[in-house]
Specification:
Distance between the termini: 35 Å
Number of strands: 13
Number of domains: 2
Number of helices: 15
Strand order of the largest sheet: 7-8-9-10-12-11
Radius of gyration: 22 Å
Oligomer: single chain
Helix content: 25-40%
């Protein structure tokens, strides 16, 4: 879905010269909403945006995009009250499929409108889910390249990342960054200790921290913080580490679909990574800006793959299961969390690889992963009672 009516590409020298000469006039000539791409090439354009917004504060008039190291806060223009920052994540399947209009799955779960959850006709099976996950969500391979070239594109992306982008940090050894990225990829959606990671990559703690910061700034990697509550004791405080795109994880970790389907641990973490990629954009569309966490008790006795914190102590617990027929056993940790939290437990969801949505237990629902990109025109709905 295209939001911008016009685009100013400031990395084009001729366009940049025109905007530099008179930024205010350049903005007035363009249709709105206006996307200003690579704004850091003409920093004066921020002043023109400020003046335009002060004169007409309607929201959504301008979209500003720039390089990873482009920071409006580093300029003299204060964006407070005028700019809302948005993370640029890889695309979710509903965006790729063109079904992103309207409320998503998370909004329906939060609102309790589970009868509005839809499953696409011809719901995916396990092999198809793995294939979808490893296709990833980067626009270039998804929209512009044949499927046989997707892996080559991701391999090239990894090469560029570890050679070009490594120059942004003091330790510029591409081989070590590549090795660390491979370790992260093989640990995606896992809870390894920091020492485990940097020792496996053959680097020290300071270098690992610099690499983490770099990969986060590039929207390649994200640690998901643990959800903590004074109502629960002995919870693990270690972050859950995700590469943001399963296709990138496969390239960096040097594995493919056959490896995923023959390794239960890698399969679980690949599906978890894929589900988290569908959830992140939806967090930005739900009122109150919910936050994504995970939960695990020390020793692994109790856990939830993901916890959506809605604020005011209210949570949604999520499990991700590589099964087409989830049972109450797959929801046992969610049932435990429900008993511990009472009414603060809004809903539990077991996301699975089967075709049917159904009620699994009180306030716990089994929903196919593909419901993330279902539309009102699709057939199956969540219904009460086991199917």
């Amino acid at each position: 879905m295209r939001l911008a009516a016009s685009v100013l590409r400031l990395d084009t020298p001729a366009v940049a010269q025109v905007v530099q000469a008179d930024p205010d006039a350049a903005l007035r000539r363009m249709d709105e909403p206006l996307l200003i791409d690579e704004w850091q090439e003409v920093p004066a354009v921020l002043g023109a945006v400020k003046r335009a917004v002060d004169a007409d504060p309607r929201p959504g008039r301008f979209l500003l995009t720039g390089s990873v190291d482009a920071d409006p806060a580093a300029t003299t223009w204060p964006g407070t009250g005028r700019v809302v920052r948005q993370a640029m994540y890889p695309m979710a399947r509903r965006e790729i499929d063109g079904t992103a209009d309207g409320a998503g799955l998370l909004a329906a779960v939060v609102a309790g409108n589970l009868d509005e959850v839809r499953v696409p006709a011809g719901a995916a099976d396990l092999d198809e889910y793995v294939d979808l996950a490893l296709r990833g969500g980067f626009p270039e391979p998804v929209f512009r390249l044949p499927e046989r070239l997707h892996r080559e594109w991701y391999d090239g992306y990894v090469d560029q990342l570890v050679t070009r982008d490594a120059k942004q940090i003091a330790d510029r050894r591409p081989a070590l960054l590549r090795q660390y990225l491979e370790v992260l990829a093989l640990s995606t959606a896992g809870l390894p200790a920091g020492t485990t990671l940097f020792e496996a990559a053959g680097i020290n703690k300071e270098t690992a921290r610099a690499y983490d910061d770099l990969l986060q700034s590039l929207f390649v990697y994200e640690p998901v913080r643990p959800w903590l509550s004074n109502r629960l004791s002995r919870l693990l405080k270690r972050p859950k580490r995700y590469l943001l795109d399963a296709g990138l994880a496969a390239a960096a970790g040097r594995f493919d679909a056959s490896a995923v389907l023959s390794d239960a641990d890698l399969l679980g973490r690949t599906l978890d990574t894929f589900v988290a990629a569908q959830l992140r954009p939806e967090l930005m569309t739900v009122a109150g800006r919910p936050r994504l966490h995970h939960l695990r008790a020390e020793g692994g006795r109790r856990e939830a793959a993901l916890v959506v914190d809605l604020g005011n102590g209210r949570v949604i617990g999520i499990e991700v299961k590589a099964t087409s027929a989830p049972t109450s056993r797959d929801a046992r940790h969610l049932a435990w969390l429900r008993e511990q939290l009472g009414e603060s437990f809004v809903r539990g969801v077991v996301l699975h690889t089967g075709p049917l949505p159904f009620e699994l237990d009180e306030r716990i629902w089994a929903i196919p992963i593909c419901a993330f990109w279902g539309t009102p025109a699709d057939g199956f709905r969540v219904t009460t009672g086991l199917q």
